[in-house]
Predict the structure.
Amino acid sequence: MERRNTRQRQQVLEAVRALDHPDADEICAALAGQKPRAGRATVYRNLNLLAEQGEIRRIETGGADRYDGCLRPHYHLRCRCCGRLFDAHMPVVEGLDKQLTDTGGFAVEGYTIVFVGLCPDCNKNLSGGR
Ligand SMILES: [Zn+2]
Ligand SMILES: [Zn+2]
């Protein structure tokens, strides 16, 4: 049983790395043909585990969480239309969380920077009809 679990975790990890910031649905779809077949609950469990272990990053988007196999610190662009995430090409601001001096007792554990807008595809589709 343990071998099967390890194998499924590895499959989920590889899917996250192979896809571009996938959400759980996209990972399930990518793994649909694999054996042993991983059900939805298994995929979710493995995503949580891998994120806790720091093997992948979970990015909260306001919709379905997305996952990133790239652990280097970087920011993201999110399309408000299709929900896809892209890497933002800009230098990381060091010590941003240190600038937060008065949290009012809030225990800060991390932060996510996501720029919101329209991806090239959606932008084209939205402006294409006119
Ligand atoms: Zn889009
Ligand atoms: Zn990324």
Observations:
- The beta strands are 57-59, 66-68, 75-79, 85-88, 114-117.
- The chain has a mean pLDDT of 91.
